[in-house]
Give the backbone structure.
Amino acid sequence: MEKDRKVSNGQGRKGISRRGFIQLVGAGALATTVVGDLGKPLPAAAAEVAEKGEMVHVSLQVNGRRHRFKVEPRWSLLDVLREKLGLTGPKLGCGRGECGACTVLIDGRPRYACLTLVLEAEGKAITTIEGLLKGDELSPVQKAFWDNDAMQCGYCTPGQIMAAEGLLRVNPNPSIEEIRLGMSGNLCRCGSYAHIFKAVEQAAKLRRTI
Amino acid sequence: MTMPNFSYVRPKSLKETFSHLSAGNARIHAGGTDLLGCLRDGVFTAEKVVSISQLDELKRVERLKDGSIRIGALATVAELTNHELVKEGYPALAQAALEVASPQLRNQGTIGGNLCQKPRCWYYRGEFHCTRKGGTRCFAMAGENQYHCILGGRGCYIVHPSDIAPALVAYGASVEIAGAGETRKIPVEKLFVLPEQGITKETILEPGEVLTAVLLPPAEEGFHSSYRKVRARGSWDFALAGVALALHFHEGRVAGARIVLSGAAPIPWRCPDSEKIITGQSLDDDIIARAAAAAMRQARPMQHNEYKIELFKGLIAEELAAYKRS
Ligand SMILES: Cc1cc2nc3c(=O)[nH]c(=O)nc-3n(C[C@H](O)[C@H](O)[C@H](O)COP(=O)(O)OP(=O)(O)OC[C@H]3O[C@@H](n4cnc5c(N)ncnc54)[C@H](O)[C@@H]3O)c2cc1C
Ligand code: FES
Ligand code: FES
């Protein structure tokens, strides 16, 4: 059924086929010269299409390394980071933008990986908490969370740390009010807020001394 | 809570976007922060997700020759909080943007998506086939309605969720709407739809149309504006009550006024009676109290949201009082 429908739906075949998508999104500069399914050259500015339920290639830059794999268009960045790349720092909490457990940096800014389609993250620099480590050494924000006991169960912690990292990258010397505002997208069910805010204050100092 | 299947397309131009939108049940994806939640929760379905996120033509924020400001629909909410042109001339908009959601969502959510977002009524977002979803019953009427509207409801009692919209209405801003046919420009005030005008729609956008930009009229001398929001908790939350004010003063008197409420009605709610009361007057306690009362005269609370009336009166009065010495 599914197959029949796809064949009769000529749209996808007019230059913007699955193959076109794979090559356009995956091959960067090569994109304008690739050849589509039917052997015809693709128009330079063709839209990128991924059919329903179909696996398409995606190329992601995560923690400074490039990865290529197949995804379904409905998969979130969080799904892929955890299930395909084994990066289990980002957590699934609510799945609807309410808790912050899935926070990662996209082009240096904190965002929710649960509300980001993986195809939307193409071409952007993604940083998870795993990417903050330098070898075995903790980053200043990680160290400050450790020193201040800024966690109990720890489930929210990677998200909190990434939110703090994002905040301090644009505002290296935040006031306590700015810290509260910057961390307001991350809930902690254990109620470690007082320690979290202290940790962010200390992290700001640590970052300045490096 | 798994994400349903859909096909995905990322057009390179508006023209291409329109052709993809003409397919049945296609949905626009800007930042995706509201769309993906709705799809995951089954609020509606999409055969095709049309991502406009790569349309650079919709990302610019610029001052036009006539002094007005044009904000592309893809400008992020975070950009509105810190863009010089916005902070300088339209402080209520910058304040409202800062009140939106959380830092992560402001980094991703766009002004266009904020205006076109779906309401947050928990019945609508839940598994209830309510009037807004084409059903025959509004479950809030006899249900948990503490966050629902006190003005403008009929057959559906949502409040409009946007903080940005009331600020835009206060400034007399417009939106540009493009479709396969002609591009139209309409006041933001006319963008939204009351339940009695169309119970399953929030905006006048037709399927296949894209909101391409927001246009702010030039900021004038003697013009003051603000947005204040009250919410149930300190971290992110939608407005229980909010008020956007844009007041024009001339020789100590109010020469022109717009008072627009969030959290009150299914659309950003203007208070023409209150505006009339203060116009031509200098703001003293008596005028302020009368204006605040007038804003709530038509209010029809339900079982659990009567508190909003006093909340709004207090909020409007406090906000107006802050201008006493302007
Ligand atoms: C947890 C949470 C808390 C929030 N709190 C607040 C709050 O306090 N105040 C507030 O104002 N908002 C709040 N929001 C809403 C948030 O601001 C919006 O989700 C966001 O602005 C939508 O922008 P987007 O670009 O992600 O839109 P998308 O999710 O991409 O789109 C939203 C809807 O608009 C349509 N759409 C998007 N762009 C266009 C366009 N250019 N033309 C036509 N249609 C379009 C889409 O098809 C979709 O139906 C909250 C959201 C969440 C998840
Ligand atoms: S899991 Fe993403 S915000 Fe909760
Ligand atoms: S430490 Fe348990 S949720 Fe924050």
Q: What stands out?
A: Residues 193-209 of chain A form the longest helix (17 residues). Residues 15 and 42 of chain A are 5 Å apart (CA to CA). The radius of gyration of chain A is 21 Å.
